[in-house]
Write a structure and sequence with these properties.
Layout lengths: L1 H11 L4 H22 L84 H17 L3 H5 L14 H13 L4 E12 L4 E12 L3 E13 L2 E10 L1
Antiparallel strand pairs: 1-2, 2-3, 3-4
């Protein structure tokens, strides 16, 4: 019936091209719908899309309240200490006499150290050392050191002048090529603190002469130094 109505409309207005085109399109649509209705299993309209299923919301429960921890502090009872009775101290009078067996403090005594005394010089050792030094200066042919052992008031042999005697001794020390004076059997005899005698055996050896004699030197101490005041020789 619809197609017949459209055909009639086309026949009524054949002169209008636009109207005819629109009516033809409408007719085609109706024809397609009629054919689809006659064909089984054909669905005229698109099935509705299945609804999107949203997951059920999870209910969030608030946390259960936590019971506050209670601390129980035991308080010990305060015990009040018993009062201490005062201690009574009695001072003894100064006149109390100590017991018989109690030691009595003695006053300190001042200790005086004895004065330092310098030991007396050993005259024997000093004379023995001086005599050997005199012989060494002679053996070394050291004229100056040798003559220095003789005091200014030395008693020269036969009353000879000091200058002449020194010249003679210098000649006898320097002329030999070698001299060796040995001392043995030394004996020291102190006279007092300033005088002493030295007696010994003198062994004289030179390049041209040798002798062995007993000799005595008389020593005097002046200004802390021992010097010869007299020289005697003999068999």
């Amino acid at each position: 019936m619809a197609s017949q109505a459209y055909d009639r409309a086309l026949q009524l207005d054949k002169s209008n091209a636009d109207t005819r085109t629109k009516l033809a399109l409408i007719r085609d649509l109706f024809d397609q719908g009629a054919r689809a209705a006659k064909t089984p299993g054909v669905v005229l309209a698109e099935a509705a899309s299945p609804a999107t299923v949203q997951p059920a919301a999870t209910a969030v429960l608030p946390p259960a309240p936590v019971a506050a921890e209670t601390t129980v502090v035991a308080v010990a009872p305060v015990v009040q200490a018993a009062p201490v009775p005062p201690i009574r101290v009695e001072l003894l009078p100064a006149s109390v006499v100590p017991a018989a067996n109690e030691p009595v403090a003695q006053p300190a005594r001042e200790v005086v150290a004895p004065a330092k005394v310098n030991p007396a010089p050993d005259t024997n050792a000093e004379i023995a050392s001086a005599t050997r030094d005199w012989a060494k200066a002679w053996s070394d042919k050291n004229v100056k050191q040798y003559l220095a052992f003789y005091a200014d008031d030395f008693n020269t042999p036969n009353g000879q002048a000091r200058g002449a005697w020194e010249a003679l001794r210098e000649d006898r020390l320097t002329r030999p090529k070698s001299i060796r004076v040995g001392i043995s059997n030394l004996k020291v005899t102190p006279v007092d603190a300033q005088h002493a005698l030295a007696t010994f055996t003198q062994n004289y050896r030179a390049s041209h002469y040798k002798s062995t004699d007993r000799k005595t030197l008389q020593w005097v101490k002046r200004d802390g130094r021992w010097q010869i005041t007299e020289e005697r020789g003999g068999k």
